[in-house]
Write a structure and sequence with these properties.
The chain is mostly beta strands. It has a five-stranded antiparallel beta sheet, with no helix packed on it.
Length: about 110
């Protein structure tokens, strides 16, 4: 058994300039922890695999394709492969999200 404390996982440099920590990475799936402070947002991008977001804390917005929705704790959002998406924190508190990519991403993410 392996146990990983999110706070001990190193932050991963990324083009969004937000806190991203890789928690799990196997040939089958990847799991990232994203933390957006008040006013932070990710750049719109496309991943070559299916992604889902699970909101751990706070309230924020998720854009997938032409849709945008406000989401909060304990909500799960599906983002199909090759569809532009991003996370935004337009509020004034912390927004933490678990991001799961299935299957494991091997091709590059494309920024828009």
């Amino acid at each position: 058994m392996e146990i990983l404390d999110v706070r001990s996982a190193p932050e991963k440099p990324n083009p969004h300039n937000v806190s991203v920590r890789k928690l799990y990475d196997t040939e089958h799936a990847q799991v990232m922890h994203i933390e957006l402070k008040a006013g932070e947002k990710m750049k719109k991008h496309i991943t070559p695999v299916d992604v889902f977001f699970y909101v751990l804390e706070g309230t924020g917005s998720v854009e997938v394709g032409d849709e945008k929705a406000e989401v909060s704790r304990d909500m799960l959002i599906e983002s199909p492969a090759k569809i532009p998406h991003r996370l935004l924190n337009e509020g004034d508190s912390l927004f933490r999200v678990l991001v799961v990519k299935v299957p494991r991403q091997t091709d590059e993410t494309k920024l828009l």
